[in-house]
């Protein structure tokens, strides 16, 4: 049973957490008692607003700008988090980039950027934090936000498909290695989630209509992912390692879309 305050004295770092799913996860971790390091690349205002929101809950929080594709910036981000909040107990790798085009339209530089953030950025963050957890003898928790795109090659999403498939396998390999250090690594897989990123592709009316077509009558919300992340970070999940937990309202039950899929999904 999950209780308020069960993550008190825990420090969390959530990459790509100024808005969307990352912000939802950061906020729910804070509600559960964790102090949170908010990572952003460009959205400083959103990150600072989230920091203030977390502080209003009585938790500590800082915002750190870093492009996770740049290893030196990742190291600086982790050091800033630890010097201000303490050693990291919970890491959530959520930072992502996406252009989503067909093979006929995708530019190499767009593919390269998505892969650098979505795969290399995950590698840098995981490695830097994991090494510190091992050196400190911490039994930490690492959560990666993946996607149905890791398994299903949706059309018109070349860069995103490649990045999510690669990062998914990377994280599973890490789970297989770090569990021997008592560090649990798991994956959250969102379905179609109402985020600013999705609203860049669709109108409010389209989002409303598509939400009504979902099995549970609505699209996912960032806090749905946040609640699942809180569960994975607590002792209630202490025997769960290398799991892929779908938070999709039944959209991809048994590995296939439960309703007519579109070309773009979160």
UniProtKB/TrEMBL annotation:
Its EC number is 1.1.1.47. The keyword Electron transport does not apply. Coiled coil: none annotated. One of its GO terms (molecular function) is glucose 1-dehydrogenase [NAD(P)+] activity. InterPro entries: NAD(P)-bd_dom_sf, Sc_DH/Rdtase_CS, SDR_fam. Keywords: Oxidoreductase. Belongs to the short-chain dehydrogenases/reductases (SDR) family. This is Glucose 1-dehydrogenase. It comes from Ammoniphilus resinae.
């Amino acid at each position: 049973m999950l209780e308020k305050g069960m993550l008190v004295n825990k420090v969390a770092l959530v990459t790509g957490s100024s808005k969307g799913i990352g912000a939802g996860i950061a906020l729910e971790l804070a509600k559960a008692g964790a102090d949170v390091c908010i990572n952003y690349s460009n959205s400083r205002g959103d990150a600072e607003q989230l920091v203030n929101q977390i502080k209003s809950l009585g938790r500590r929080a800082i915002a750190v700008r870093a492009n996770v594709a740049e290893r030196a910036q990742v190291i600086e981000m982790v050091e800033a988090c630890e010097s201000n909040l303490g050693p990291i107990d919970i890491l959530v790798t959520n930072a992502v980039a996406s252009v989503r085009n067909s093979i006929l339209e995708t530019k190499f530089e767009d593919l390269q950027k998505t892969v650098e953030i979505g795969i290399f950025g995950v590698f840098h963050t995981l490695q830097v934090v994991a090494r510190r957890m091992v050196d400190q003898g911490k039994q930490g928790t690492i959560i990666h936000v993946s996607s149905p795109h890791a398994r299903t090659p949706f059309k018109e999403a070349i860069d995103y498909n490649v990045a999510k498939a690669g990062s998914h396998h990377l994280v599973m390999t890490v789970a297989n290695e770090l569990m021997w250090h008592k560090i649990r690594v798991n994956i959250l897989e969102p379905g179609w989630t109402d985020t600013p990123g999705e609203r860049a592709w669709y109108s409010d009316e389209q989002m409303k209509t598509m939400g009504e077509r979902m099995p549970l009558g609505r699209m996912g919300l960032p806090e749905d992912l946040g609640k699942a992340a809180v569960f994975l970070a607590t002792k209630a999940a202490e025997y769960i390692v290398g799991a892929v937990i779908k938070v999709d309202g039944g959209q991809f039950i048994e590995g296939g879309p439960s309703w007519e899929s579109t070309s773009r999904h979160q």
